[in-house]
Known about the structure:
Blueprint: E1 3-7, E2 13-17, H1 25-28, E3 41-42, H2 44-50, E4 52-59, E5 62-68, E6 77-82, E7 85-89, H3 97-105, E8 111-113, H4 123-130, E9 134-137, E10 151-154, E11 158-162, E12 165-169, E13 178-182, H5 185-188, E14 191-195, E15 199-200, E16 207-208, E17 210-212, E18 217-218, H6 221-232, E19 238-241, E20 247-248, H7 252-267
Parallel strand pairs: 7-8, 8-9, 9-10, 14-19
Antiparallel strand pairs: 1-2, 1-3, 4-5, 5-6, 6-7, 11-12, 12-13, 13-14, 15-16, 17-18, 19-20
Amino acid sequence: MRAASICTACGLQFPAADQPPSHCPICADYRQFVPRAGQHWTTLEELRRDHRNSFGQLEPGLVGISTTPDFAIGQRALLLRTPAGNVLWDCLSLIDEATIEIVKGLGGLHAIAISHPHYYTTMVEWSQAFGAPVFLHAGDRQWAVRHDSSLTFWDGDARVLLPGVTLVHCGGHFAGSVILHWEAGADGRGVLMTGDTLQVAADNRCVSFMRSYPNMLPLPAAEVTRIARRVAELRFDRIYGAFWDRDVTRDAHSRVQESAERYVAWMGGRGTDAPVP
């Protein structure tokens, strides 16, 4: 029986086939990794047997969704609710009837937008369940292994999804890495949803910029400076990262600039051990 295989290491779903793929291009890439035990596969049907999605409100209009127990990379998706429609930011491998019913009860989806290929997962399944287009930056087109008419590849610096909801191209981690800017978030002070493009650090006061997080490959200082300048143009006070409890809850605009300056200083041999303010 033909099945759509899902990589257990990164969560990427492949087109239905008689046999699983020979390898996962996401894991074979130097930004991710093939586990020591080798490449393994599951299916959506198998995943539904022993995994569930959980929901938690982060602030009015914003709900986090994650799979339990953790699967693959373990990221969360963010459901942004606005008067003009809802946007799912980033994606999870697991989608089941309970998830569909809950999300529809919260207003369904107007669009799905994904920060970078590590979170493409089962994006086509999500799109088909809600009749929502998936917005991906054209710089990452090569990583979309399951082709579908729902995939909308956009180019350029920014793409408005809804009033006050804009995708911003930053690059860095991947050529097409993007963030989402929500103007009305944080009580009108503005919110960024950053995935891994700006990774919120464990202290919830800093962010970092990496080519590969698991393999600890840094970005060049000039690239970090460019990303920081791009983000500086936006008005925001809060950042929601890719994982639970990785959020910068205040002064996020200045925190990003301070983090970039510290990064560049250390790359140039000018770093100090002064504490983070």
